[in-house]
Specification:
By secondary structure, the protein is α/β, with parallel strands linked by helices. About 35% of the residues lie in helices and about 20% in strands. It folds into 2 domains: about 5-115 and about 180-320, Rossmann fold, CATH 3.40.50.300; about 130-175. Mean pLDDT is about 80; it is low at about 1-5, about 280-285 and about 285-295. The protein binds adenosine-5'-triphosphate (ATP). This is ABC transporter ATP-binding protein.
């Protein structure tokens, strides 16, 4: 194989540091926060799902939101993106007050989240899914939509953007396939590509690694790292601690609706309670070795871990299948 054909070795990318001000503690202020939330509470009957006193999300960094099942991560995601309303609390995104604002408006301001490919979206093609992610479509506006020249031009622009993104995410050959025919990992790539159609400032990813087989893990991680390099902010919920350690610049730990710890991954993961709850006995195995991203000996612990990750992925994938 000539040098030209040799795939480039993955480049280890720098973590962003110096994100906080003062001593690290739950709710610590950030040097340049993109989201600032205060007193956000959401109850369901007698159960308090989210009870966050203060939280700040650093701009142009990758923040992981972790915590055990039922900690309130998804509920907080839903609140921040306007898909749910809090009992009380307020927050700003990029200086805009968002509490009470609907999901559509939140997305227009540049804060988007990925969506799982539902059964209905699976019946659309990959390209049609991408088009759904575009914002400010003229066709949605009844009056402007009556001027065919305007929407045809916009349609062409949207398709061009979709094609560029599909190529980047190596889904261009799947453009006219039904989305349901994609593998778990390709679906995750499509979810991310679709979110990027609206040229967001903040991308929120819901369990980006769930259901992804090791062959696509590296590609997904690289795409997430690319988002930061392109100037975006990433906030993601994830159970895979190895992924969190590998790509997050900052980690926020929730339990029982509250923020119980936060900090750079290495520091948070030294926290005894966090180690016991999430890392188990494999905490020193690097995800990069498991996925082949970094050269290293696949020792017994790594082999065990790869099998464990696979099993967890398939459990999560099964749990997420729509109930009949
Ligand atoms: N629509 C709802 N109605 C009633 N209870 C809810 C609703 N949504 C969430 N809850 C409850 O709120 C709590 C927090 O749930 P949430 O899904 O936010 O946790 P999570 O940290 O995302 O968990 P997981 O990691 O399992 O997805 C749980 O006890 C859950 O049962």
């Amino acid at each position: 194989m000539s040098n030209k054909d040799t795939p480039a070795a993955p480049v280890q990318r720098e973590k962003t540091t110096g994100l906080h001000k003062g001593d690290i503690a739950p709710g610590v202020a950030k040097v340049d926060p993109i989201i600032i939330a205060d007193g956000v509470r959401r109850t369901f009957g007698g159960l308090t799902a989210v009870d966050v006193d203060h939280i700040e999300i650093p701009r142009n960094a990758i923040t992981a939101l972790i915590g055990p099942n039922g900690a309130g991560k998804t509920t907080l995601f839903n609140l921040l993106t306007g898909f749910d309303k809090p009992d009380e609390g307020k927050w700003t995104f990029n200086g805009h007050a968002l509490a009470g604002m609907g999901a559509h408006k939140v997305a227009r301001l540049g804060q988007v989240r990925t969506f799982q490919l539902t059964k209905a979206l699976g019946l659309l093609t990959v390209l049609e899914n991408m088009k759904l992610g575009a914002k400010d479509q003229i066709g949605e506006n009844i009056f402007r939509g009556m001027i065919p020249k305007l929407w045809r031009k916009q349609e062409a622009e949207i398709e061009a953007r979709a094609e560029v993104l599909l190529k980047k995410f190596k889904l261009d050959t799947k453009s006219s396939d039904f989305a349901a025919s994609l593998s778990g990992g390709q679906r995750k790539l499509l979810e991310m590509a679709r979110a990027l159609m609206s040229e967001p400032t903040l991308v929120m990813l819901d369990e980006p690694m769930a259901g992804v087989n090791p062959a696509l893990t590296e590609s997904l991680l690289d795409h997430i790292l690319d988002l930061k390099e392109e100037g975006m902010t990433v906030l993601f919920v994830e159970h895979d601690m190895h992924m969190v350690r590998h790509i997050a610049d900052w980690v926020i730990v929730m339990a029982e609706g509250k923020v119980v710890a936060e900090g750079p991954p290495d520091e948070v993961m030294k926290n005894k309670a966090v180690i016991d709850a999430y890392l188990g006995s494999h905490q020193d195995v690097d995800l990069g070795i498991v996925t082949g991203r970094i050269e290293g000996e696949l020792n017994t612990a790594a082999i065990d871990l790869a099998a464990e990750v696979k099993e967890i992925d398939s459990t999560i994938a099964k749990r997420k299948e729509p109930r009949k």
